[in-house]
Amino acid sequence: MTQAAALPETGGARPSPLRASNPLTRLLGDLRGRMFGTRRDALLSLAVLAILGSIASAILPWALVNATWTGASRADCTGGGACWAFVASKAPQFIYGFYPPLERWRPDIAFSLLLVGLVWLMVPRIPGKAYAIAFIALVLPITTFLLLRGGFAGLPLVPSDQWGGFMLTMILAVSGITFSLPFGVVFALGRQSKLPLIRWFCVGFIELCRGVPFLTVLFMAIVMLPFFLPPGTKPDPLALAVGGIIFYEAAYMAEVVRGGLQAVPKGQYEAAMAIGFGYWRTMLHIILPQAVRKVVPGVVNTTISLLKNTTLVMVVGLFDLLNIVSAGVSDPLWAGSQAEGYFIVGLVFWLMSFGLSCYSRAIEAGFARADRS
Amino acid sequence: MTPPLIRLANLNKWYSDFHVLKDIDLEVRQGERIVVCGPSGSGKSTMIRCINGLEAYEQGAITVGGELVAQNDDNIEKIRQRVGMVFQNFNLFPHLSILDNLTLGPIKLKHVPRAAAEARAMELLERVHIGHQARKFPNQLSGGQQQRVAIARALAMDPDVMLFDEPTSALDPEMVKEVLDVMIELARTGMTMICVTHEMGFARAVADRVVFMADGAIAEVGGPDAFFSAPKTERARQFIQQVIH
Amino acid sequence: MTISVPDHPQRSPLGRRRILGWLYQGLLVAGVALIAYVAIGNLYANLAARGLKLGFDFLWQEAGFEIAFHLIPYTASDNYWRVFLIGITNTLLVTVLAIAASTVLGFAIGIAQLSSNWTVSRAARIYVEVVRNLPQLLHILIWYNVALRALPPPRAAHSLGDAAYLSNRGIYIPSLTTDRPGLLALSILLALILALVLFRSLTSYAERTGRTVNAWLPAFAVLVALPALAIVLSGAQVSFSVPHLRGFNFVGGWVIVPEVVALVLAMAIYNAAFIGELVRASIESVNKGQREASAAIGFGWWQTLRFIVIPQAVRVLLPPLSNQYLNILKGSSLAVAIGYPDLVGVFTGISINQTGRAIEIVAMTMGVYLAISLLIGALINLFNRMTRIVER
After folding, report:
1. For residue A122, what are the contacts with CB-CB under 8 A and spacing of at least 6?
2. Any idea where the ABC transporter domain is (chain B) (predicted)?
3. pTM over cut 0.95
């Protein structure tokens, strides 16, 4: 025997009840190890839990326990909690803006069509994706515009300055995404082009849009652009804003698409050329289909940021969801309801954004699964 | 009889439910060359990564030069300075030149003056026949060259024992020989070595003992000639047939 | 790497593809020219109808409106060029503060996500997922209209040691003024440079000789001693002013107005979520083998971070981080929603209303942002080229 000292048992691994048969106990034990394994960890965990706990104990009683859910004005909201009566009573305005109440069935139809189109496009199992795209890109904008505006066949005219709220946010976002993506593809291809004039034009456009704040692009569209239109035309501010959104986001989409194009291995171009495909055929049949997969996360990210950017139209006087809630707060009956208003707006945006990013992750996982099988 | 340099006693490790190392007992004396082989998934890499604390273990004990190896201990870094390791993927530091790769450890950990560290580094680089590349960067070298640099980097810390984790498995066939030659030269200088490898020719040339592992346990130990010509277990026999084709 | 379909070597310059190429370009030029022709025609017609002319002479007109917050002196009788400068300085102030705050917070969030402590990493993850999915404008409005409004009036302000105060009129902090501000600034700058040089030479001396030398203490001493020495030797007057309540408000000290506080807080919190993700991704991009090799040599956690992980992570981190900083600059334009007089608010907003010179003003505003973006972009390219990991 050479070593006199007894050899202690473990080699520094955290004690873990590994061979527990119950997966729940195993999970809990593992968690406990990672939260409270060392003394420093335990202190940190307790500190973080304390902070989270104090935040929750500040918000939850306000939002749920002491809240008032019905009422006709702020004065009815006693109890020190959230005044959800504000949201309840203003809800139609938050959703439809200043759209005449009798005509609200028209946005309802338009929204249902949008939902149909989105489900058709986004759920993987439903076939005919190309038709879904055509539906969303062509049929939907035209029908929505005609339906909402009216002015024919007995439908009363509802000018766009009465469109507002969540409905307006959706119009801005959906038209923004629908049109900025194809423009983005065009600019991305143009940026790769060997023809110098086309390349410089595209590079210049992209760098310009990416170098300036979105707000200045909106100002440019709403304040500066009318100067370049024939005198006497009164352009629709909504149309100008949508135009601004489309062009600004097209530049960002272009960069995302460019990244996707560059991620396609060079060998694919060579293989396509070896078959005899020209530039357009190569792009259409070989490159773009492969780039699509690499591009999904970036496109969804740009979509989320586009969605968040729609709130900026508030500054140029359009009444999107955020602005109409702010306007609702300034109603003397409900003065002081900012917290409730912003909470609802935040909730809506968060659900949409987080939902989109979960969808993107699911699509990527689906691609990865398809690869492995 | 001198105490063993490295001692694994009743070593057991689990990944969750999976028992990856089962009752490993092994002693390595100073100057011994051990080759560890076996089918993939047999736990060979895991075992030698436990020796320098890159993997933790749940049961048993590993001692290096009499000191206990425990991953979260304060003295694990001192132990690692005496154990050199060469990885399958070289793991050279790409943002440093070859010379700086070798001198970083001695300068920062052993407080060797820069000039002395660089002189020793050049000496080691010459030994692995790559002295002329000292100012280059890792990504400018071929795989075989990078692995030779990795060996020199491990030697730069003056270790008592060198661990090799499948050093040639990631190399193109024509580069395997240059790395094995360096390892054989190293063995001839009397360095204690534990190599996980599939290169049976190397085992035959250099090993004092061959440790055959299967399913997380040591299945057979023996001198190389005895092991290759007359393996005692069926598992070992199958393995040798598959490897020598 | 430009992906372009390579040419066949045998094609002659007058081949079909070339002609098509010229055709496309010609179409583009013709299209742009046509649109420009029509647009400019309309422009002149519209300008004539309003009695305006294109030109930058309006910049020297008197502005005639007040601006609540300005870093350089301004009165209503100053001209629009001054207004332009005020806008730029106000924008830069908020941007720089927000960048500093969001960087510190962002690094903390990013590193927290990599922590082995489950609570800490989950909490950081929740922070990122909640914060970044809310619009930045909403963040700003919440901080300004909800959080800051909830602060007490100056008479009941929260005090920090009787030297600093928190109220709904802003944050009041003690101020340091001197009659030789240039000297003070210069001595601080000099001290920074000297301290840095001293630090570098001490550490390389330690490396060369192998002795352990504490480089921090001497460097810190220089940093503090030099400005102090400069003040004492030059006889400059340095006065310290602590805010105190007089009537309904505070006098003395410096005040950070609520708009700035709300903007900086909101932008810091929002952008920290994104910066955290960048930091996390950059550290994760350094592959595990690097950490193992470093550990195998005997480096501890901090040394591995310092010599191996951070140098490699920084190369991956800096380009998208600088992009995020540009986003912060562009995001500062949201200040107009809470009435803070940044460049967009005071120039593209008020000034266009007053002068009607939309074209010139929008162009100037965009020009400023574009110039800064291109400058930062060029610097990043330079950085990339200088620190490229050398490959074959």
Report:
1. A359
2. 6-240
3. no
